[in-house]
Write a structure and sequence with these properties.
Blueprint (H helix, E strand, L loop, with lengths): L17 H11 L19 E4 L14 E4 L2 E5 L3 H8 L1 H4 L4 H79 L6 H11 L19 E2 L10 E2 L20 H8 L1
Antiparallel strand pairs: 1-3, 2-3, 4-5
Helix pairs in contact: 4-5
């Protein structure tokens, strides 16, 4: 098929779908720029060439389009344009018919290119807007995360101060308990942020005291000792004495 050749088709043809028809021409090795459908009733019978060749091989028809009617394939040739001009001058009588058809093909090709450019441009614009939207959304998401982090820190601080105020009276009373260990008492004072009071240490220098007989031991034993009672200051051995903590000693003295 030479360049600028016109191919006519019927609206009832199997290739009435424009996309499939253009794809068929491309597979056949031709470049199609557009389709100009005509009414099949306006095409006379002698404009067809009867052929028994299968339409599956488009190169066998020299690139022409075949139509299937009553089992036979009717091929429209390049002479159809001249025949149509002669037989239907009122409808197709135009000496510049082929030129106008070629110009129509070029216009269609230009329009398609413009439409494709518009589609590409609109796609690029939409993609750019989508990117901007993603950036704005990520910035808003980061600001929300920062705000939530600040609220979380403020909430933790508030609950910590509230719990400390509620527990403080109980800790103060427990720190005064004389039956808890010194380590636990120091931990409580550390939580309260106060300094523990100094406990006076009562020390008895044994070396300054001479050994004396324990005044509690029976006469047969009469153990000698350097210790003396804290209360009465009388000599007393370890077996006859009982250990007493400094807190009890201090409280008993008060």
């Amino acid at each position: 098929m030479p360049p600028g050749a016109a191919v006519y088709m019927s609206e009832k043809s199997a290739y009435v779908n424009t996309t499939l028809f253009l794809r068929w021409l491309e597979e056949a090795g031709f470049k199609a720029t557009g389709i100009c459908p005509f009414n099949s009733e306006a095409i006379p019978d002698h404009a067809y060439e009867i052929s028994d060749q299968s339409v599956e091989n488009p190169q066998a028809h020299n690139g022409a389009v075949s139509q299937s009617q009553s089992g036979a394939h009717k091929t429209l040739t390049q002479e159809s344009a001249h025949i149509l001009n002669q037989t239907h001058p009122n409808q197709y009588g135009d000496p510049n018919f082929e030129e106008r058809l070629l110009q129509w093909y070029e216009d269609v090709d230009t329009d398609c290119s413009d439409k494709e450019d518009d589609v590409d441009e609109s796609y690029a614009i939409n993609s750019e807007h989508e990117t901007d939207s993603e950036i704005e959304y990520s910035e808003e998401e980061e600001s929300l995360d920062e705000g939530q982090a600040e609220e979380t820190e403020e909430g933790k601080k508030y609950y910590y101060e509230l719990a400390q105020q509620l527990v403080k009276p109980h800790l103060e009373s427990r720190a005064k308990n004389e039956h808890i260990s010194r380590k636990l008492r120091l931990s409580i004072y550390e939580i309260l942020g106060t300094t523990p009071p100094e406990v006076p240490v009562v020390r008895v220098d044994r070396m300054e005291m001479k050994k004396k007989n324990c005044y509690i031991c029976p006469y047969q034993k009469k153990r000698r000792t350097n210790f003396s009672c804290y209360g009465c200051q009388k000599p007393i051995c370890l077996e006859c004495s009982r250990k007493m903590c400094l807190n009890c000693v201090r409280n008993s003295s008060n």
